[in-house]
Amino acid sequence: xxxxxxxxxxxxxxxxxxxxxxxxxxxxxxxxxxxxxxxxxxxxxxxxxxxxxxxxxxxxxxxxxxxxxxxxxxxxxxxxxxxxxxxxxxxxxxxxxxxxxxxxxxxxxxxxxxxxxxxxxxxxxxxxxxxxxxxxxxxxxxxxxxxxxxxxxxx
Length: 155
Prior knowledge:
The protein has helices spanning 12-25, 56-64, 76-84, 102-117, 130-154, and strands at residues 3-6, 29-33, 45-49, 70-72, 88-90, 96-97. By secondary structure, it is an alpha/beta fold.
């Protein structure tokens, strides 16, 4: 299992949680972004800079992700593509996207986009807070623990 991060819009605090996790667990973690990213020196943490452009980083992740990998993203269309490939997607607020909930999330996103395009003033998401950080870290730890247990049970 590898962790892929849609890093352009990923909050710094989430990246820091991911760095600590990669160093602690040894899980390969790759950040993909349109701009250069400085990452801590580690055999498990990588940074890939892709060309600037609409969905270039997303397309890179979709091509690279494999069954069982985890993608960190708030981008619902990217999450849908990842889930369709048999991988997992977790948003920075700690919500796991699954085959059971992704269609609903896409429909809600599309509806909100439609309302905005018609001039409706709709507020955005709530400010990122400590509870979001804790929920993300807990869900990440649970996911990695489940993965590590699967590996251990196969040996």
